[in-house]
From TrEMBL, chains A, B:
GO molecular function per UniProt: DNA-binding transcription factor activity; transcription cis-regulatory region binding
Annotated protein name in UniProt: TetR family transcriptional regulator
Keywords: DNA-binding, Transcription, Transcription regulation
DNA-binding region coordinates: 29-48
Membrane-spanning ranges: none
Organism for this UniProt entry: Streptomyces resistomycificus
SUPFAM superfamilies: Homeodomain-like, Tetracyclin repressor-like, C-terminal domain
Annotated HTH tetR-type domain residues: 6-66
Domain of life: Bacteria
Length: 191, 191
DNA sequence: CAAGGAAGGTAGACAGTGTCTACTGGCATG
DNA sequence: CATGCCAGTAGACACTGTCTACCTTCCTTG
């Protein structure tokens, strides 16, 4: 079996996801993906007019998986907004550090700056959820502003941590202290 | 005149800096830099064994210029530590948004993750200055930890702002509200 | 002063890339 | 049966980074 006719379109994305998590983002050449999918180098063009659109589809999978992990970790939302935000932060940082290649791909400039590739449609709902939680955790604050600053903080921690700048400076074994520091800064001390 | 013999090594970096600020980071091919420097495509190899090392030298210029702008803006350090940090934050965000290509280059994964390319030597002093200022602004806090979280926050704001995710969400005209939010979060309200 | 040698740059080859175009095989519909 | 279209092939093109052989020019050293 091994999925002989599974629709080339989604199979290309599958191969790409597999490739970026195992080999890294530089392995995502159009021809290599086609090779591993068992088709000629011109075949992807039928479904993805350009290399960037294929990369965008792969990155979209990353956002979807991240969102899935997020809602799964929240479960029944009995916890306080503050604790839910902490959970989401942990999930995100863990995802970014265990799926380095995918995380790097998801936040590539040429992918996110484009309005046509439509990665915003997948990333914005995640942000909206955060805005909502921040609004309930800090009713007196400007929720989109604080949520934006907090998201930027989490993203920055993920980046600086991956290339080792921060564990050198803070000699911390994992990212938990940094995450706590950021959460306490933006949301106040957990009462 | 026009600097006929100005040392190819630094001339290549000059061309690269010029190129990345005007055309963007994707224009920094080895052969294009050589072309604009008026030499053959094999010439850079004498000074930079690999393309990445040339890119690293160009990025180093970026860090140096940023550090220069920082100390210039501080001037005589009569201001409070908190105000000095705010000044540095403004300078950094302004630099990141006016020199988009250079900022993107400076924080490329393949450049920063490498220990051999030695970009850390240029970026760490800047971080150390921030740690020192944070230590004086918040003597009770774990200075490297707070400084790390703050730096990550600034970096994240710079990134999310460049690709437009944040002005869509916060409908702010410039980055000042975000910067203030981040500073207030990590350093407390400016007394 | 002549010989030697190395520094510094040229030019071509090679494998690999993304995009474009012409083409083919099979399959459905008329 | 014929038509046309859909999906994928195959080759070309320009471009990339790296490697290697070569050439000049200039400085040193015997």
């Amino acid at each position: 079996m091994s999925e002989p006719k599974a629709g080339l379109r989604s199979r290309l994305v599958d191969v790409g996801v597999e490739l970026v998590t195992t080999e890294g983002v530089q392995a995502l050449s159009l021809r290599e993906i086609a090779r591993r999918a068992g088709v000629s180098h011109g075949a992807p063009r039928r479904y993805f007019p350009t290399h960037l659109e294929l990369l965008s589809a792969i990155a979209r999978r990353g956002f979807e998986e991240l969102a899935g992990k997020g809602v799964a970790a929240l479960g029944d939302d009995t916890a306080s907004p503050r604790e839910q935000i902490a959970t989401l932060g942990r999930v995100y940082l863990d995802f970014a550090l265990t799926h380095r290649g995918m995380h790097e791909l998801m936040f590539r400039h040429d992918l996110l700056e484009s309005n046509e590739l439509g990665l915003r449609d997948v990333s914005m709902p995640i942000f909206s959820l955060l805005v909502d939680l921040v609004g309930r955790a800090r009713p007196e604050a400007d929720a989109p502003l604080v949520a934006g600053a907090l998201l930027a903080n989490l993203y920055g921690i993920a980046q600086l941590w991956t290339w080792g700048s921060l564990q050198l400076a803070t000699d911390a074994a994992d990212f938990a202290p940094l995450l706590d520091t950021a959460l306490e800064a933006h949301l106040g001390r957990g009462e």
